[in-house]
């Protein structure tokens, strides 16, 4: 399986702008710029997209790990905070609030750590990855 996305950039680094389009068209000429990346401008940015990818990948991997252990989550609410510092992604922090019936805290912690270590985006990132996981 292969997936793709396209970035088109026009102009200089600070004054220019670009747009992103994904194969699925979920992003379809979605604007990004210096302002949306380094300030609070309108549009998305690469780090925000990495955070979304990591949160989504982790949640799906955890669901699969839980299923393999005999559990089904009713909700996995995952937030990812990516820190961009010194020209690179310095860290990715996952915050999870999970509803998983009939699981012990120990089983849950083991499954969450497995998903953190083994989701494909975690494996892709060359950075510190941390996790706060809570059963609610």
What this model shows, in words?
- It contains four helices and six strands.
- With 136 residues, it is of the alpha+beta class.
- The chain folds into two domains: 5-38, no CATH class; 46-135, GMP Synthetase, Chain A, domain 3 (2-Layer Sandwich).
- The strands form two sheets. Strands 1-2-3 form a three-stranded antiparallel beta sheet. The protein has a three-stranded mixed beta sheet with strand order 4-5-6, with helices on one face.
- Strand 2 (17-22) and strand 3 form a beta hairpin.
- The longest helix is centred in the middle third of the chain and has 23 residues, at 46-68.
- The chain is elongated, with a radius of gyration of 17 Å.
- The relative contact order is 0.14.
Give the arrangement of secondary structure elements:
Layout lengths: L4 E6 L6 E6 L7 E4 H5 L7 H23 L6 E11 L2 E12 L5 H14 L1 H5 L3 E8 L1
Parallel strand pairs: 5-6
Antiparallel strand pairs: 1-2, 2-3, 4-5
Helix pairs in contact: 2-3
Total individual domains:
2
Please give the CATH architecture of the largest domain.
2-Layer Sandwich
- From the helix content, strand content and strand pairing, which structural class follows? alpha+beta
Shape: elongated
What distinguishing features does this structure have?
136 residues, alpha+beta, GMP Synthetase, Chain A, domain 3, three-stranded mixed beta sheet, 35% helix
Short description:
The chain is α+β, with helices and mostly antiparallel strands. The protein is 35% helix and 35% strand.
């Amino acid at each position: 399986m292969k997936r793709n996305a396209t970035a088109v950039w026009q102009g200089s680094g600070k004054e220019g702008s670009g747009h992103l389009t994904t194969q699925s068209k979920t992003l379809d000429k979605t604007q990004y710029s210096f302002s949306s990346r380094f300030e609070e401008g309108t549009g998305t940015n690469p780090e925000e997209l990495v955070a979304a990818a990591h949160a989504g990948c982790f949640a799906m991997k955890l669901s699969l790990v839980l299923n393999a252990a005999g559990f089904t989550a009713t909700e996995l609410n995952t937030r990812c905070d990516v820190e961009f510092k010194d020209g690179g992604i310095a860290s990715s922090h996952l915050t999870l609030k999970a509803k998983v019936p009939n699981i012990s805290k120990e089983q849950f912690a083991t499954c969450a750590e497995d998903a953190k270590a083994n989701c494909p985006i975690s494996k892709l990132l060359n950075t510190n990855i941390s996790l706060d996981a809570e059963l609610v």
